[in-house]
Amino acid sequence: MLCTSWLHSRVTGKALRSLTRASACPPTWIQQKKEVHALTILDRERQPASRRFSNHNRHQSTSATPSPLTQDLPTIYKPPTTGVISKLPSSWIPYAELIRLDKPAGTYYLFLPCMFSTLLAAPMAMVSPFQVVSTTALFFTGALIMRGAGCTINDLWDRNLDPHVERTKLRPIARKAITVEHAIVYLGAQLLTGLTLLLQFPLPCLYYGVPSLLLVTVYPLAKRVTHYPQFVLGLTFSWGAIMGFPALGIDLLSNPPALAAAAALYASCVAWTLNYDMIYAYMDIKDDAKAGIKSIAQAHEHNSKAALSVFSAAQIALLATAGYFAGAGPIFFIGSCGGGALALATMVRRVNLKDVKDCWWWFRKGAWITGGTISLGLVGDYLYRRSREESKVAAISV
């Protein structure tokens, strides 16, 4: 300690003498730096160990903090390296991404109401299993095409909003990989393909199908004016709940039970859309608020699970109503309604709305957890009722 004090006084005296001679012969900046550095070392040695340690930690934490410049760096687009899109030519990839070819959940949600209505109408129309399968296959192809067209329309409307949302800022139009002009031409090709496919169905399907294009166009605008754009999306995505009846030759306007069944099924699918798309909207709830985009998640942020429960109950009640008017049997009510209710209850209870990954998992898997359960009940009901009718015909012929 005495040695340290003596050394400190010697260095301090030297520094003072240097400053005194500054007017006559100022020291160089190197000499000043050495003297100040020596004083700093001595002062640090005289500090308690705990203080020296805290200063060291403060220096480390400050230097570890990333610069604002590095924090605000934009996310760089990376082409896909896995999946079906990665195998396409590089010039095709933006167009495949535009129609969400790598994210088929939306296609499933558009297709499933079509399958519901086809299976619900099949026992009423008494059609063969082959006709049910072929009609369902046409509906799936149409869902793939028209979902892509809907995504293109949505991204054209949202091209100035998507760059401000983390999940959408690298979409092809938002990142300028596809120009607006090229996107419009691409949309025209999709709509023309969809029309060609629609003409493969009975002619009444054309009259029922074309009005849905208005809803496809309006949905992106709804996000700007109401907190319930998911309702408009439900009206759009659920349109297939009507189409299965005319696709199998049932005239809804002259068949009141079929019309009531179709209307109830349509309403049930709208409630389902409110359910799954509310979970989807939670993934963007913060970015949407900043960008001025409205959603049902914002409207029910404080009672989200209660809202999901109400939508689920409405979906199952309306589904049961549709089955009642369609003359469905116990397999439908136990399998489709009971199984669907169990699937929805499990989802509502388990989904963590504050976890983006969990919301995405339930959105993707929910299509087949709930939709698949309902479909299995409908398939079972169709096969049972068909076999019963065949038995009656065989008994009469004998």
UniProtKB/TrEMBL annotation:
Superkingdom of the source species: Eukaryota
Enzyme class: transferase
Catalytic activity: an all-trans-polyprenyl diphosphate + 4-hydroxybenzoate = a 4-hydroxy-3-(all-trans-polyprenyl)benzoate + diphosphate
Keyword terms of this UniProt record: Isoprene biosynthesis, Membrane, Mitochondrion, Mitochondrion inner membrane, Transferase, Transmembrane, Transmembrane helix, Ubiquinone biosynthesis
A Pfam family: UbiA
Record InterPro entries: HB_polyprenyltransferase-like (IPR006370), Prenyltransferase (IPR039653), UbiA_prenyltransferase (IPR000537), UbiA_prenylTrfase_CS (IPR030470), UbiA_sf (IPR044878)
Stretches for region Disordered: 48-74
Record field: transmembrane: 108-130, 205-222, 231-253, 259-285, 331-348
Cofactor: Mg(2+)
Localisation: Mitochondrion inner membrane
Pathway membership: Cofactor biosynthesis; ubiquinone biosynthesis; Secondary metabolite biosynthesis; terpenoid biosynthesis
Membrane topology: Multi-pass membrane protein
EC number: 2.5.1.39
Gene Ontology cellular component list: mitochondrial inner membrane
Composition skew (Polar residues), residue ranges: 60-73
Gene3D superfamilies: UbiA prenyltransferase
GO biological process, one term: ubiquinone biosynthetic process
Record-level Gene Ontology MF annotations: 4-hydroxybenzoate polyprenyltransferase activity
Family recorded in the similarity comment: Belongs to the UbiA prenyltransferase family.
Role according to the record: Catalyzes the prenylation of para-hydroxybenzoate (PHB) with an all-trans polyprenyl group. Mediates the second step in the final reaction sequence of coenzyme Q (CoQ) biosynthesis, which is the condensation of the polyisoprenoid side chain with PHB, generating the first membrane-bound Q intermediate.
HAMAP family: UbiA (MF_01635)
Identification of the protein by name: 4-hydroxybenzoate polyprenyltransferase, mitochondrial
Species assigned in the record: Cladophialophora carrionii CBS 160.54
